[in-house]
Amino acid sequence: MDVHPYEALKTLIASILPADEQAMQRARERQAQLTKPTGALGLLEDLSVRLAGVFGTPTPAPRGAAVIVAVGDHGVVAEGVSAYPPEVTPAMVANFLADTPFGPGGAAVNALARTVGARVYVADVGVNATLPDHPALISVKVRRGTRNLRHEPALTRDEVIQAILAGAALAAEAIRNGADLLIPAELGIGNTTPASAVTARLLQREVPGLTGRGTGVDDATLARKQAVIEAALARGGSVPTDPLGVLADLGGLEIACMLGMMLKGAAERRAIILDGFVEGSAALAGMALAPALRDYLFAAGECAEVGHAAQLAHLGLRPMFRLDLRLGEGTGGVLAVPMLMSAAAALREMRTFAEAQVPDRA
């Protein structure tokens, strides 16, 4: 008998347990004995302890990494909130899948992923076009783009749940294929507008402090974008205490899909690397649904969008770097892979003072 989607989502949320405190304590004790001054590896030490909690061992050994790019379009682009037309979305999907002299994919995330050996998955969850068949394109389309959130709810609750469960299935596939580090990623022209709207509602903050230039819009477009978000919020279609309702009212299919990846990753005790602002909006909704999700989230960098710092502060996450990234696609998340792998390796492979027969501190 098929399980109702809402029941499947409740089961997924209920399966997310806090990180392993005992493993983290043992990792801290090991860190204190390694052949280095205390704290000499800085943030890497904190990251390694958190990884111990995720994987349930004081010597974590994560295997591979996967970037899962969820692609969706947005009805709100009709309001002139983006510097690029919606036709860019299907064109960029073709770029993600293109054959190049260096390997599959000609986008930034493909190039960066190749350098760290991360696998890139591309999933159509809501492109407003019929995409050509391609063996590497995963179709989980819920609908052809969202409705215009300026005037009506972007999605129904059922559509949100469908997209979340699709993301969970994508994460499960990546895990089966050897990924212990998951990078939820997105592509969708105009998607910083719903991300800002979702963030504003969930954090109950003013729109200007959470809304940036996205793909680089000019001052007039930024002002219009902020006005559109304020009008959408003024509709009163959702409340902060109902994260699924907020996603339906103001969100995007790729945002909901990424949330599903995060929930499944946490349920399977895998590390989840947050890329940027759009991913942050999904994480806010996720932590409202399952507070223990936070234990599995690792912030790559603080991106150039003005609201990202507020998201990270609410999530209680410290970014690994600040490179003024604003591309999306999971690019920042890919750059964080070597840092997490290195943090785990240092904890796992360094010798202690006793093992190395090196005199410890007096």
TrEMBL record:
<comment type="similarity">
    <text>Belongs to the CobT family.</text>
</comment>
<dbReference type="Pfam" id="PF02277">
    <property type="entry name" value="DBI_PRT"/>
</dbReference>
<dbReference type="GO" id="GO:0008939">
    <property type="term" value="F:nicotinate-nucleotide-dimethylbenzimidazole phosphoribosyltransferase activity"/>
</dbReference>
<dbReference type="InterPro" id="IPR023195">
    <property type="entry name" value="Nict_dMeBzImd_PRibTrfase_N"/>
</dbReference>
<dbReference type="InterPro" id="IPR036087">
    <property type="entry name" value="Nict_dMeBzImd_PRibTrfase_sf"/>
</dbReference>
<protein>
    <recommendedName>
        <fullName>Nicotinate-nucleotide--dimethylbenzimidazole phosphoribosyltransferase</fullName>
        <ecNumber>2.4.2.21</ecNumber>
    </recommendedName>
</protein>
<dbReference type="InterPro" id="IPR003200">
    <property type="entry name" value="Nict_dMeBzImd_PRibTrfase"/>
</dbReference>
<comment type="function">
    <text>Catalyzes the synthesis of alpha-ribazole-5'-phosphate from nicotinate mononucleotide (NAMN) and 5,6-dimethylbenzimidazole (DMB).</text>
</comment>
<dbReference type="InterPro" id="IPR017846">
    <property type="entry name" value="Nict_dMeBzImd_PRibTrfase_bact"/>
</dbReference>
<keyword id="KW-0328">Glycosyltransferase</keyword>
<feature type="active site" description="Proton acceptor">
    <location>
        <position position="329"/>
    </location>
</feature>
<keyword id="KW-0169">Cobalamin biosynthesis</keyword>
<comment type="pathway">
    <text>Nucleoside biosynthesis; alpha-ribazole biosynthesis; alpha-ribazole from 5,6-dimethylbenzimidazole: step 1/2.</text>
</comment>
<keyword id="KW-0808">Transferase</keyword>
